[in-house]
Amino acid sequence: MLAGGAGAPSALAAQQPAPVDEFKPVGNNPAPEQIPAAPLLIGAYIVVLGGLFFYVVSLSRRLGAVRQDVERLETELKRRGRS
Predict the structure, then answer these.
(1) How far is CA 38 from CA 13, 44, 46, 52, 63, in A?
(2) Could you tell me the pTM of the whole model?
(3) CA dihedral 67, 72, 75, 79 (to 10 degrees)
(4) Residue 74: which H helix or E strand, with range?
(5) CA angle (55, 60, 66) in 5-degree steps
(6) Cα(47)–Cα(74) distance, rounded to whole angstroms?
(7) 23, 33, 43, 64 from 26: Cα distances, Å
(8) Interatomic CA distance for residues 38 and 48, integer angstroms
(9) What is the DSSP string of 19-70?
């Protein structure tokens, strides 16, 4: 077990590149890939506003159902109170 562990540091040292003594400017690299931000931003706004719209529509439908239930209960209570 010790023999296997002793060989590992030498294998790692062999894979490391040699240190550089002088500065070499990076000038010949290709330009980084650029993604236009406007379509992504517009898409994100559409998704968020669409989700908000559907949430508000869903909320208004549920509120309407609750109002109908309250009105039905009020009329039922009035009818039972008179009897």
Answers:
(1) 47, 10, 12, 21, 37
(2) 0.52
(3) -160
(4) helix 37-82
(5) 125
(6) 41
(7) 9, 17, 36, 65
(8) 15
(9) PPSS-----SSPPPP---HHHHHHHHHHHHHHHHHHHHHHHHHHHHHHHHHH
Read off the pLDDT band of 7 (50, 70, 90): low
Write the DSSP symbol of residue 16: S
**Tokens 């931003």 belong to residue:** 41
Structure tokens belonging to residue 58: 């869903």
Give tens-digit pLDDT for 8-66. 566 666 678 777 778 777 777 777 788 899 999 999 999 999 999 999 999 999 999 99
